[in-house]
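Repro:
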Amino acid sequence: MRVLFVTHSYPRRSDDPAGVFVLGLARALVASGTEILVLAPSAPGLAPEEVIGDVPVRRFRYAPRAWETLAYTGTMAEQVSASLRGKAALLGLLWQGHRAVAKVVRSFSPDIVHAHWWFPSGLLAAGGGRARPLVTTLHGSDVRLARANAWAPLFFERVARHSAAVTAVSTWLADKARALAPGLEVAVEPMPVDVALFTPGGPRHAAKFAFVGRLNTQKGIGVLLEALAATRSGASLDVVGDGPDRPSLEARAQSLGLALRVTFHGVLPQRLLIPLYRAATAVIVPSEREGLGLVAVEAQLCEAPVIAFRSGGITDIVIDGETGLLVAPANAGALAGAMDALLVRADRGAALGRAGRSAALARFSPDIVAARYRALYDRVRASVA
């Protein structure tokens, strides 16, 4: 079977975290005997064709080279809303992406076109890939877009109508998608995580928490800083990631008296996340409306206890009191209480970490996820035969 992946977020090199779960699915499917080709937008410094992790990638041009910055960084919405240049680049991406999908469908002749994120990839595939059945996967940011803009639900419904199957990476996302398009069937199928890479080992800090994610309001790092300041333990925090709020967050940490207790590391490659997960007392996931929360899965695979808000797709991953701790969303006091409570446990959450790893292995192992998607592709192909 041949499958064409269409995506705007994908690793640009072997250690790039952008869309790494899409590459993970592609590699797992290739290992199971499926032929995969990935189509993604161009960006400065990227080759038009290459192979990453045994998976071939083709990239399409959509604007002058200096303008091709919409993909891979998670800043598409900000760029488009901030300038005419961003809006023009988006129009180019939609038009040239439509043409690129049609061209690759003719040359590669896939059995299935699999769009990751309904926007923009689903729109591109629904237009350019009409000759092949379409599977569309919702990852989170695309559903938030559809709920936040007046025009977006119309385009979302168009993609849904053209899709032979729609999947979402969490139950929460599937419910939100059904609310946008009543009657839509959405299967919950998460992306894989590299279970061979994220493994436990070594001692844990006595009182050092960790956060990994984009530094913006949705990820909740500001609430975490307030919670840390309210803890009774004097614990410290490693912050991994970057984003538009970093300067204000560093200033906020200073004003809360946390300058010596919080370390901002910036973005780290996956191989450097592993020792951080292994050593952290717990990994904190304070985001709201998270599509799934793969950081929590990575942490669980390293047997790190996870403390998170009871919001979004994270509730598929963390079962309160069994595989982690959940507290009320956006509640710094409740978060601080959970952090303190973990530190006074006799095992400092080690049992939670072990249970979390077992649950993550059963659900996110690449071979398990790939088998489920291959079965979905087979059903879709049979239904249109």
